[in-house]
Amino acid sequence: MTSELDIFVGNTTLIDEDVYRLWLDGYSVSDAVALRVRSGILEQTGATAAVLQSDTMDHYRTFHMLERLLHAPPKLLHQLIFQIPPSRQALLIERYYAFDEAFVREVLGKKLSKGTKKDLDDISPKTGITLKSCRRQGLCSHRFLCQQPL
To answer: Is the whole model's pTM more than 0.85, yes or no?
Structure first.
């Protein structure tokens, strides 16, 4: 039995904006794959479910590795590990530090500190935003409100 395998080797880090949004929104890989399947991507691309699963996992691994750099944007801009064009770096940073309207409405007027995970746990079901996304936005809002350097 012979199998066919396509391999792509390159030095530019590919970023799928739709998968990045799903990752920022806190979806698991399996939930992200399900949402992508419902969006009709298999029909649009002719890919199989296995390829879609692998692609999504690969993107999530990349985003996980990039996250520590996103915590300090100047590090992302000056690092040499990921070859990401400056315009794409700006997009990654902008979207990482963006807030959902529902989240902002819930936290306005509340004093958030690093130790208020309980508040974020309560915000998640009220807004329908995943807990992971609430925690990311809570961390970003704390940095912004405390004027900690990015």
So the answer is: no
